[in-house]
Every structure is written in structure tokens, then in C-alpha cells.
Amino acid sequence: MTQLFRSLIFVPGNNSRFLEKAKSISADIVCFDLEDSVPDSEKKNARNLIKQALKSRSSYLSSIFVRTNSPASGKIPDDLDAVLQKGIDGVVIPKVNNVSELKKIEKNMSKIEKDRKLNGIQIIPSIESAEGVVNTYNISSSSKRVSAVVFGIFDLLNDLGVEYTKDPEGGKYSRTKIPVDAKAAGVASIDAIWQDLKDLDGLENDCIAGKNLGYSGKSIIHPDQINTVHKIFYPNQAEIQWAEKVNKAYLDSIKKGKGATTVDGKMIDEVHYKQAKAILDLTKT
What we know:
single chain, alpha/beta, TIM Barrel, 2 domains, 8-stranded parallel barrel, globular
């Protein structure tokens, strides 16, 4: 256990003010966005801003992911070339339809990692089409890099020709299937966003429904949603045990005049310690 998936917040990659404010956001994953929130004319600028933000990774409380453009866009090679560097934990790939698309991306990532002496960058595919829903288990189990999958409700409904509502009938089968397939593949699942920022009661009920379906957390679009999401997706026993191990190991390492150390064969550093401390603080409230 080296990653929590209770909350994944999207931050527009072309907005330097938002990228700076994200340093204080307490979501489990801050995801700098290169896709939907960034117009084509701003893609290059967004890549450069994200590249600079990653250099100050230690200032961020959360794990840092970047959402690339979709496989169909043809922009992923440029996205990866810009953002795969020290400081990034993973990439969210939107609109993944099948394993073949993901394998091409992974091959590109492996080459860049080798050239830049990087390793362990995660992939979170986003399931946003009928084909993607059908292939969720295969996508989830296609690579050791895949740590979670995200449910993207809006593009799925568009693919199905169904109008969006707060509880769309057309999305219920897909919403139910995705966490089952993810669990069978041994990865986490992150539920779709709740669009109405003013309806926190609706958000809470939607989180409860998602948790009861087996989701590990929820995608969010505003910091005001974090507390509600974290209240529902409370750390489980395995996460608490991981936090206790990390907390002890890191503090012991600090006492010896060192920093990064290992837990269960995996490297941990200050970022993991902050995550662990946050979990343990939650258990005391």
C-alpha cells in the first residue's frame, strides 16, 4: 500500500495560479490536467507549466498525477515527453477503450523512463465508453503499472446517447461493473465526479452509493468536495496498518540522520510519510 485513492482532484494545467494553490490541497491525488480543461491553443503552455510544477514536488501534500490527452487525440507522445520526469507519480489516461491503446502508451513510457533513469510511474486508465466498460477487466489487468481505474460518466453517456442527470439510468450498469472488474484485477477504482458543487448532500449520498458498489474513492472538481469525500471513503484497516509501518520506519530513519527508507521492499520518502501521518491523524479524530 503506497497510495490512497479516496480523492482525485483535477487541476487545469494551463493555470499557474491553480497549480500553485494545489500545493495546499489535501486530496490524495492532485491530477494536473492536459485534456478537457485545456484548449488546444494552450496545450503547449500547460505542458511547460506542469513541467515546472513537478520540480517543486516536495511542496505538494498529495501524490501527483497528470491527465494526458486521449489515445485518439494523437497528443500523448508530446504529453509524456513533457511530463515524465522526477516528481511525477503517475498518469491518468482518458478515454481508454482497449488494451492495445494502453500497451502503445506503456511502451512509450518505458522508453522515456529508461532514457531519463525513472521507474515505477503508475497508470490510471479512465473508462469513458461502451467499449471501455466491456474491456475494463482486461484493461485493469494489462500491466503492473495500472494501480486504479477511473469511471468517466459524461463521455460514457455521450457514447450511449443518454442525457446526463444526477442519477442516470444509462450509467448504472457501467458504474456497477467497473469496480467489480477492477477488484478482480487487483486494482482500485475511482468513481465519477459529482458536478453540482452546491449540492453537498447529493455528493455525500453519491459517495455512499459509490462506496457500497466497491469504489475506493471519487473524482472531484473542487477542493470544497474533499472533506465530504474523505468522510465517506475513510481509510480501511490495510491502509491504517500501512500508515503505521511508514510512520515508524520514516521516523526511525530520520533519527539515524537519514531520509528515505523502505517498507515492505518499497521506497518511502517524505511524501509517503505525510500521507501516513494524515491517515493516522484521521484515526484520532
